[in-house]
Every structure is written in structure tokens, then in C-alpha cells.
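User: Before I run my own analysis I want an independent prediction to cross-check against. Here's the chain; please return only the C-alpha cells and, at the end, one sentence I can use as a sanity check.
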Amino acid sequence: MNRRAPYDLVVVGAGIVGSAAALAAARDGLKVALVEAREPARWQQDEPDLRVVAFAPDNAALLDDLGVWTGVREARAQPYRRMRVWDAAGGGELCFDADALGRPALGHIIENTLLADRLWAACGREPGIHRHCPAKVEALAQDEHSAAVTLSDGSVLHGRLVLGADGASSGLRALAGLEAPLHDYGQRGLVAYVGTELPHEDTAWQRFLPTGPLAFLPFTDGRCSIVWTLPEDEAQRLLEADEESFRRELTRAFDARLGEVVSVSARAAFPLRRQLASAYVAGRVALAGDAAHVVHPLAGQGVNLGLRDVAGLRETWRKAQAAHADLGAQHRLARWERTRRSENTLAAYSFEAINRAFSNDAMLPTLLRGHALGLANRLPPLTRLLWERAAGV
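Assistant: C-alpha cells:
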């Protein structure tokens, strides 16, 4: 280690991706600093977080390796065994079934706050991690051998590699001179928990509407977590609607697939955007998670992609350790960047293309898209390939 770099890795941002990266590095014997502007919100069992993730099996395996998965699963994680996707205009239906794919489950529905809380707590118990919270990065300097971040309390942290996992508005990304053009879809994702007449059947449901996809995701208490993509004005109207009107419109939009919507929690909505960093690496600074890529949520892959950044980076530093080499060497980071940037960019534009194809009422797409879903469903190898791609298997 360079004498000016007492840390192997300095992680900026202690959300799900940043905390997972810090924990993985420490478990691999690296000395880690974790910087966070404010302590993550504590998970509350009696107040479910409105933001959930469809957590993929490869990332469950990563958390299991880090000793966190059992605690997450035992706290509150809903496995889903089937996924059903159909178009409001008719045509066929695309179905994924865990039994047919030889899996115990396709994935788990988990609250964002629960994941962040358990990872943050695990970092606090790890002797190889030095947490700096509350603290903000105010300056960045680099040389050939290390990078240094100056914190708001005046301390300076030197590391062989600095990882920016501080979200879509990443301050570290700006300090590193990396651009991330923003494309606003003009849509918002409306989220809530709803009770339905019929059980959710451990199934993730998604219906494509001309205004955007509507997902009903199974939750542990028998309710469903909904994510309803809508034009901004429609989202605002439905946020302000009284409960009875909202339940009625939601039942109709979902084609009463689970009977009537009988209860609704508090509602919220967030803007939908695409934001892809022009590069993931600048010297000894790397970006991961939302700091590097923000994608449309229709496939629930945002957190999954971020944790795959971590898994790829972990493979990079493990190879460096085995060779007794510099984990922040440019050629190593360049290989990681090519792989992750390619996969994340492909995912971002694929989700966007699907959203555009299904979220309109033009005649030709309307005639074709439902039949395309039905065709894919009649080709089991294609169905397996689609799921394996999403699951990281």
C-alpha cells in the first residue's frame, strides 16, 4: 500500500450499493472508509417502506456471502414464485413460473429501507470499516498512486480507490469531472400498498397500459405493493384523489385481476428518469449504482444493477489481491468499467424501448405487442433466457 493511502477503499455513500461494497471489501481483508452525509433511516416493522425492489437471486447470494441475507429474509422478504405480464390491448400473456424454471422462487420483494438498514448495521459491526457519518465530501485530489477526499469536518481520507455510490445527484461524480446527462420521461411512479379481494398468489403481476405499466407485487402481509407509471399530471391527479375514487380507478386499470381493491395505504410518487454517466472511472475514482446509472423502474432492476457493479468490482480487487497488485490500477478498472457500462446501458435502453412500445395507443404497436408476449410464452427456452437475464443467473 502506498504510504499516503492508509485505506484500500474509500466508499462515498452508505445506501444499499455503497454499504454492500464497503462490507464486501472489508470481508476480503481490505481496509475501508465509509462516508455518509446522514445516517440511513431505520427500518420500521410497523411502517412498511413504500419503495420496494424485486430482489434478484444473484444479489441474494451476494448478501448471503456477506452474512446479511438471513437477517433480511427473516425480517420481511416476500418470495414470488410466478410473474405474469400482459397488455391491456389484448393478445397473449407472458408467464414465468419458478417450478418450470427449477427454482424455489423467482426473487423476493423487499423494502429498500430494510436492505439499507441491515447493510449499514453490518458495516458498523465490521472492524475493517471506519464509518464517517455525518460527513460530506467537499474536495477531491488525485495523484498517480492514490486519491484523497476532504470531508466537511476537515479530515482527509486517502485511498487507493474511491468509490462513488452517493446517488443520482452524486457530488463525488461532479468533483471527478464526470458528466451524467439527464433524460426526464415526463412520468412519475406512483407507489402504495393495497389490499385486494383475492390473494396475490405469490405472483408479481404487470399490466401494460397506454399510460405506462402497472405492477402489483406480492407483500408479506397479504397486500400488494403497486408501482403505477403515469404521466405527471395523471399521477398528481391520482395522488390527490379520495381513497374510494383511487381504489375504483386502480381496480379498473388492473382489470380487476385480483378482484376489487379494498384498501389503500398512503400514496407517493417519484419522477422517472434515465441518467447514464459518460464514464464510470476517472483516475482512481469509480462510480456505482445510481451515481453511474439511473434506469426506468418497469423491471425493478435499479438496485440489482447497482449490486452487480459491486460484484464485478469485487472480482476486480480479488484478482489484484491474488497477484499482489494495485487494485486501483487503470487497466483493471478499465476492464470493470467496460463490462458494467455495457450491461447497464443495454439495460437502460431496453427498459426504455419496452416502455415506449407498450405505453402508447398507436395502431401497429397495439396490434403486435400482446401477440409478441404470447409468442415468447410459447417458447420455453426464450422464457428461461429472459428470466435468467433479469435474475443474473
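Sanity check: The two ends are 35 Å apart (CA to CA).
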